[in-house]
C-alpha cells in the first residue's frame, strides 16, 4: 500500500491571520482522519511553498501526494501557475504519484454549503 499524504494548497497572503481558515480545515481533516498526513502549502507570501512541502513529504517516504487547491474557482493561478508547479514536482520526483484535484470551490458539496450559508443570512436582512 502506498504511503500517501495530502497537501492543502492555498494562495497565501502577507497577513499571517489569513491562513487561519486553512489551519481550521487542516485540523478538521485530522480530526476526521488522524492517521492521514496533512500539510498546508502556499503559492506566495507564506511558507512552505508547494515544492518545499512536497519535497519534505517525499524525503519522509510518502509515495502518493494529493494536492487540493483551496481556491473558490479557477483563475489565472490555477490555469497558468499550478500546472507548471505540478510539472516541476513530477519532474523532480518521477517516482512519486502526484494527484491534483479541482479547486474546493468547484466541488458540488462546497457549492451547496455556500448556498446554504448564503440562504441562512437572509434572516439577517
TrEMBL record:
Keyword Lipid metabolism attributed: no
Gene Ontology molecular function: lyase activity; metal ion binding
Record-linked CDD domains: CbiX_SirB_N
Organism from which the protein derives: Candidatus Proximibacter danicus
Pfam families: CbiX
Highest taxon, organism lineage: Bacteria
Keywords: Lyase, Metal-binding
Protein name: CbiX/SirB N-terminal domain-containing protein
Xref: Gene3D superfamilies: 3.40.50.1400
Keyword set includes Lyase: yes
Amino acid at each position: 500500500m502506498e504511503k500517501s499524504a495530502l497537501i492543502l494548497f492555498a494562495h497565501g497572503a502577507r497577513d499571517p491571520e489569513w491562513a487561519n481558515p486553512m489551519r481550521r480545515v487542516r485540523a478538521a481533516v485530522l480530526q476526521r482522519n488522524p492517521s492521514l498526513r496533512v500539510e498546508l502549502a502556499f503559492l506566495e507570501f507564506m511558507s512552505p511553498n508547494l515544492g518545499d512541502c512536497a519535497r519534505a513529504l517525499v524525503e519522509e517516504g510518502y509515495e502518493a501526494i494529493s494536492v487540493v487547491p483551496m481556491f473558490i474557482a479557477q483563475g489565472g493561478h490555477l490555469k497558468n501557475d499550478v500546472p507548471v508547479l505540478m510539472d516541476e514536482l513530477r519532474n523532480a520526483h518521477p517516482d512519486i504519484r502526484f494527484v491534483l484535484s479541482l479547486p474546493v470551490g468547484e466541488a458540488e458539496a462546497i457549492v451547496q454549503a455556500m448556498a446554504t450559508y448564503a440562504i441562512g443570512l437572509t434572516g439577517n436582512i
